[in-house]
Amino acid sequence: MLIITRHASTGTRILALLVLLVIIGLMGLGLYEDRSELDAVRERGELVVVSRNNPTTWYEGPHGPAGFEYDLARAFADSLGVRLRMVKAESVGELIGMVQNHTVDMAAAGLTVTESRKRVLRFGPSYLTVREQVVYRKGTPRPRRIQDLIGHSLEVLDDSSEAERLGELLHRYPKLKFTEVPEVDRQELIERVWKGEIDYTIANSNEIALARRFMTELRVGFDFSPDKELAWAFPKTKDDSVYLAARQFLEEARKSGLLHQIHERYYGHVRQINYVGTRIFLRHIHKRLPKFRGLFEQAAERYNLDWRLLAAISYQESQWLPRAVSPTGVKGLMMLTLPTARQMGVDNRLDPEQSIQGGARYFARLKQRVPKEIPEPDRTWMAIAAYNIGFGHLMDARDITALQDGNPNRWVDVQKRLPLLMRKKFYRRTRHGYARGSEAVKYVQNIRSYYDILVWYTTQNPKQNAPEEPRFGVLPSDS
C-alpha cells in the first residue's frame, strides 16, 4: 500500500498522488492484476508438459520426437503460439505429483480418469477410450475371470488405475496376490509376459494392440474393466485458464479432424497384418534380410532415406526374393517396371544391388515431387502410395479430396479418396483415369506395419545384422 506521510514535501506528495492515481487506473483496466496461468505460458514462450516415455505417448522416432500424446500436445502448444517442452516422469506417482505441485503446466500421458485421481487433478475432455485387459502368453493357461489370476505371478504398474482396482478387489478375493512394479512402463511388463518371466499383467487395450504387432504370442485373457477414458490432467487450482484453453483446443481438434488424423497416424495400421503374416515376416527378417541389409543401408545413406523403410517397401513388393517376377512383368527385390528401371539406370532388375539402388532412387524422386507443404509422416505415406499406384493417380486422389472439402495434405483424408479412383463417376473426371486405389491404401498400411516391426526388431538387436539364433519369442515354433 502506498502511504503519504504528513511530513512529506508538497512535491513529493503530489508525485505520490499521481503514482496512486496511475495504479488505480491500471487496476481499473485490469492491467495491474496478476497474470493468469495462460498469460504466464505465453509470456515465457513455452508449454511445459509431463509425460511417460513409451510407444503410446512420447518417444524419439526416425524424424524426431513422436507419439500420440506428443503430437497432440505439440498441436496445442502451436495453437497457443508457444514451443512445447516435454518433461519425463519415471512413474505415474511422480507424474501426478508434478502436476499437483504445479511444476508443469499439464500432463499428457495417457492417464485414465478415475474417481481418486479426480480428487487431486482436473481432467480435460476425453480424447481416447480404452479398456484395461489381462494379457498372457500363448501356452500359458488363459485367464477368463479374476479367480483365474490367483496362484499365478501378476505384475502391474505402480500407482496405476489397474493397481488401484486390484487393491479394491482384495476384500472379495483375499488370496489374490499381485506386485506393483515401480519405475517401469507397461510395455516392459507386457514384454515380461511375452518372454515368459511372469504369467500375467494388465494394460490398456491400445498398448496391447501395439505390442501384439511384434510379440505375436501375446493374447488377451479378458477385459479387466469397462470402457475407460484417457484425458490430459491439470493442476486443481483456482486458475483454470490453461485447462479452458485445452478444452477449446480439443473441441476444435475433434471438429477439424486433427484428432482423427493423429489417431490414424499411430493406430490406423495396427491391425493390418494378421498373426500368421507377422510370424512369417519375423522369420524372413532372420532368414532373408541379412543377405540384403547392407545394400539397403548403402542405398538409404545415398538417398537420405531410412533403410528400414526401403526394406519394408521391398518386402511388400517381393518378400525379399531377388528373382521375383509378377504376372505384369515387374521384377526384382524392388519390383521395378522396365521403363522405371531404364530411367533409374538399372540394367538388370534381378540384380539385388541394382534393384535396391534403383528402387531407392525412384522412391527418393517421388518423395521430392510430393508437395513441400505436406508434413511428415504424411509426406512419406503419400510417396509410398505413389510408388504403388503412380504419382499422377496420387495427385488425382488429392484433387478429389480437395473437391470433397477434405485436406489434400493429410494422408488420413487422401486414403479415403484413393478407392474412388476405381469408380467411373470419379475417375472419368481425373487426369490419369482409373486406378486400383483400394490396393494402394492396403499397400501403404502393410508397409507401415512392416516398418514398425523392423524399427522394433533393430532396436532389440542394435549391434547385430541378425542373431545366430532367434531371441526368445521372436521366431516361435509352430507347436
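the 2nd protein, sequnce then structure:
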Amino acid sequence: MYQPIAWKEDHILLLDQTKLPEQEVYIECRDLETVADAIRRLAVRGAPALGVVAALAVALEARIITGKTRDEFFHELQKLCDRILETRPTAVNMKWALHRVTEKLQSADTAQVKNLKKMLEQEALAIFHEDIEANQKIGIHGREIVPDQATIMTICNTGSLATAGYGTAFGVIRAAAEAGKKVLAVSCETRPLLQGSRLTAWELQKNNIPFVLITDSMAGYYMKKKGADLVIIGADRIAANGDSANKIGSYSLAILAHQHNIPFYVAAPTSTIDPDTQQGDDIPIEERKPEEITHIGNQRIAPDGVAVWNPAFDVVPFAYIAGIITEKGIIKPPYKKNIRKALGENRQETTD
C-alpha cells in the first residue's frame, strides 16, 4: 500500500514525512549525509525506522571506504556510525542496530574488506526485514488485549511510517481491526509537529480504520465524557526498569489514563529496550529548535524573542504502564526481572 523505506541497488528511498499528508514524495539517498539530513529534519522518524535506516545508510556509505586492511576498514566504519548517531540522541534503536552490524563483522572470519562490505549490507537488510516481522508479532500479541468494540487512544505516529513496516502501537490497532474487531482509534494531534494529525490520521485513512482526531489537551476530557478502553503508545527508549521515553505528551496521557482507570500500554520491539539505561531519568532527552513551537510551517504564531523550551520526548514511569507489548509477548511487572528474561531469550535466539 505504501512503503516508507526501500533499499535499491545503489540508493535508499525514504518517504518524506515532512510532506505528508499533502504529498507523497520520496527522497533518493545516495550517501550517508543525505540520510542524516533526512533524520535531522524528521523526514524519516520513529525509533524502529531510525535503527533500520541507520544500518542501511552505513552499509551504503561503506561501499566507498578506501581502507585496504581490516583495521583500516573498521576505523572508517566507526566514523560512519558516529556521524549517523549524532543525529538523534534519544532513540536507542540506532545504537542497537549499529552495534549489531559492527559486532557481526568483528566476529567474521575474514580479513577481506570486500567481504566485510557485503556482510554489512546483508546484516543491514536482515535488520530491515526482521523489523517488519517483529512489528507483525507485536500486533498479534497486542490484539489479544483489545476487546471488541474498543476505543484506543494513541499519540504521535507508530505506524508503518515509524518502522520498516506495519507499526508498533499502530500495529496493535491494525492487527485488531484485521482480526475483525471493531475498533475506534483516538489520535492525539501531537504538538508541536503534529505527527498524530499529519501522519497517524493519514495512515488510519489508508488502512480504513475508523478514528477521531483530537488535540492533545482534549485527551483527559475525552476519557471522561466518551471513555476509552486502552491507551497504547510507542517508545524511543525503554529503560531496564520499564520507564519508557516517547513523544512529548505521553507522560500526560499516562497520568490521565491512571486517573480514569484506563490500562496504559507501551508497544515496541525489544531492540528499543536499553538494558544499560537503568531508569528513565538516565535517558537523554533531545531538545529541538524553538521554531517548532513559535511557527507553524513558515508562519510565526508567537511573539518574536520569546523563551522556548522544546523537549521532543518525555518519560512515562513504569508504575503507570500495564504492560510492554513486544515481539516476544507482553512484558508485565515486575519489569526489571521480566525485561531481563525477555532480553535473555532474545539473545539466546540470536545466538542460535
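The longest strand covers residues 183-188. The first helix runs from residue 32 to 40.
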